[in-house]
Amino acid sequence: MPAHVLYVAPFYSANILQCLDALTSLPDVRIGLITHESEATLPERYRGRVVGHYQVRDCLDAEQLVSAGKAFQAGWGRVDRLIGFLEQMQTPLAVARDKLGIPGMTEAIARNFREKNRMKAKLREAGLPVARQALIGSAEEARAFVREVGYPVVLKPPAGLGSRATVRATDDESLASALAELFVTPSNPAQAEEFVRGEEHTFETITIDGRPVWHSSSYYLPGPLQVLENPWIQYCVLLPREQLQPHAQTFRALNVRALQALGVGTALTHMEWFLRPDGSMVISEVAARPPGVHLMPMMGLCHGVDMWQKWAELMVFDRFEAPPRQFAAGTAFFRGQGPGQVVRAVEGLAEAQEQAGPWVVDRKLPQVGQPRASGYEGEGYAIVKGETTEEVVTALRALVKSVRVVLG
């Protein structure tokens, strides 16, 4: 009997369609689509592979997801899974599952991951190392928090996405600017945290019914907040050949305890954490969805698998298998420099090709005339793969030193 799966795809972006490719390639699966798009806009390659379609106005509205789910339940007799990988959708998806009686992450668990203040409280109650934090709704509450922890502090939305809209305050003037930028009020509070200094890493974990079955850890070079604050920085993400290097192996126990404290069931989770200069470790935050910054294709390259397909199998069938890691991988992000809003020149490509070309396996190069990117990932990227971590580090260093994207 085939599994009946509803996939929530607000728009047909590359990542969303890549995930849909993975789902439609699974055997014994019947796929229905919940989307903002009309049925006529479904790409031709999915005709006959997607067997149900329901258009909604807002995929972040749980009640609209419930209405769609009820329509599929009436037509199909049952729905076994309701899934989507975008972080903003995790809570409405969970609310809809609860109301429809569909197995998967519940609303209570989803809120543990999406609401950062609640997340940190759960982790602290479990005795885990996290930065001191507070939910602030006014300037006075922000100043009181600074009196407790000192400068610098970090402010972010309580249900933020990665490092977007994250601001560091180093004195009273920058604190006032941060409060204004985030428009902090009692009805629109911000998450305030003490600033943690150290190497920033990720830790990806696959759990099945709460049991960890697979781990991976990567480096941010440099950390996301430094990248956000310095638009000229060319940065990288590194996935070592060693699946868990010694520092990550040590952190593994904290990761497992944190996921247990948050109540994770079956999921691929993406945790960010710090390794301080003194060797101590601090959990930053964790999301119950696949990681960004090209970590999915990088993990796939290292293990010789399609990681999106593996995620689809995990979410539909509660199973995951991957061969041992055989390679290292990394991504170099090319970010425009200068005050302009359009790419005027891309320099150093020939030098980059000479020094790093043999390791490049995928790329999207900046093009003259394209507009300045709105996100911190920049105007282009190159993904590299090597047999050793050292090879990949050398290739990444060559790429970020050679390529220069000039804005004007």
Automatic annotation (TrEMBL):
Keyword Nucleotide-binding: yes
ATP-grasp domain sequence ranges: 120-316
Pfam families: ATP-grasp
PROSITE patterns per record: ATP_GRASP (PS50975)
Gene3D superfamilies: 3.40.50.20, ATP-grasp fold, A domain, ATP-grasp fold, B domain
Keywords tagged on the record: ATP-binding, Ligase, Nucleotide-binding, Purine biosynthesis
Organism: Nannocystis bainbridge
Protein name: ATP-grasp domain-containing protein
SUPFAM superfamilies: Glutathione synthetase ATP-binding domain-like
Entry-linked InterPro entries: ATP-dep_AA_Ligase, ATP-grasp, ATP-grasp_carboxylate-amine, ATP_grasp_subdomain_1
